[in-house]
Amino acid sequence: MKFKTTTQNARRNFLKNLGTGSLAAISLPGILYPKETTAMPVHNGFFLQDEKYWAQIKKQFAVPSNLIMLNAANLCPAPASVNEKVSGIMSGLSKDVSFQYRKQFTEGRKNSIEALAMYTGVAPDEIGITRNTSESNNIIVNGLDLKAGDEIILWDQNHPSNGVAWEERAKRYGFKVKKVSMPENPKSVEELVKPFREAITPQTKLIAFSHISNTSGIALPAKLICELAGSKNILSFVDGAQSLGSTDLNLKLMGCDFYTGSTHKWFMGPLENGILYIKKDKVAQVWPNIISVGWKDSNMTVDEKFCALGQRNEATLAGLVETVNFHKTIGKTNIANRVVQLNDYLKDQIRTKIPAITFLTPISPELSAGITNINLPGKKPADITQKLYDLFGIATAPTGGIRIAPHIYNSLSDIDKLVSALQTLVV
Ligand SMILES: Cc1ncc(COP(=O)(O)O)c(C=O)c1O
After folding, report:
1. Pocket lined around ligand 1, Cβ cut-off 6 Å
2. Which residue owns the Cα nearest ligand 1 atom 15?
3. What is the pLDDT of residues 227-269, one digit of tens each?
4. Three-state DSSP class for 209?
5. For labelling, which of 87, 144, 272, 285 has a CA lying 20 to 30 Å from the CA of 9?
């Protein structure tokens, strides 16, 4: 069976399950809806009208009703349409691995790249598909020419693949790594730009930072930091592991030189794909790490120059286009708004019902996004996350504190269940 047929079936089923045509028209009017302004049914100040829509989306995921996944910052389930497409290709490959049959997947990868480029607002030749953010990050770390006398600036909350990786390389090549910290309870965007501005010297060659911290949930104003870097001829490198698929992303508007991400996190599949964006005029400055069949010496796209990593899983590469379709059907802005709405609701409920809980993440949605990281007084995060899973079937992560990362397959009632569970564990 050709994978095209599988795709068409998956898409037809997807729309049928949702009630035909309703998705394109959906709009979320805002993030918070005060009770006083509406006659609509409300749930502690939040419209219930949208819950019906999101309940339809939830049906696209195979997570059973006794489990609640609040761990999008680590891994997300994929919707049915994506799983169907990937497994359709996999079963085709189990029957026929000839070059002749597999020729279609070269086109499949190209389609995925074009779809990703459209989704991120860049040109197709600026995007490549790696295996995950760690790999994309290390391609930049190992690919740039830096030498003794040069300086780079990192956020001290960067993931090891964009932190330790730089430090190891600096030991070998002698450049200087400077790390900046953010204030503990940031109150404004300016407080998040200032540490970078103050660390810049005439020797600074690059600023590399996580768009959203996986440990504190702080969302940095990426556009402002990239603008600052660009104004001083400094390269800007944004690790988007926590923003690809959870925010209203447009890399051209962000203005970064490099951006990386994983599709198995907020992007919702398929497993083990990463993206690597390199702005066209910066491609020549980066050396490739891995060279394999298909690599040539000139006129290469980012995918050709940096992502020829040997034999890959053609099913997940070609399946990626289906995830972009899923995002397109719901709408990038709607998804971003819903993620913020779930986090706003979560913060609101915790503050009202369990005031003893402390937040590592700013309350303001301007300074945070999809992650809410909390601590229960006197309790170890690892014990609480284990109990949440064992006793209540709720998946969170002991990263930074207790890291809660809801996505569009969660409902307000999932958040209610988490808050009730935390109420029993706080004592
Ligand atoms: C900010 C950040 N960068 C990179 C990574 C690594 O992602 P992956 O394991 O998909 O390579 C993570 C994982 O949590 C992350 O949060």
Report:
1. 132-134, 159, 161, 210, 214, 239, 241-242, 262
2. 241
3. 999 999 999 999 999 999 999 999 999 999 999 999 999 999 9
4. strand
5. 272
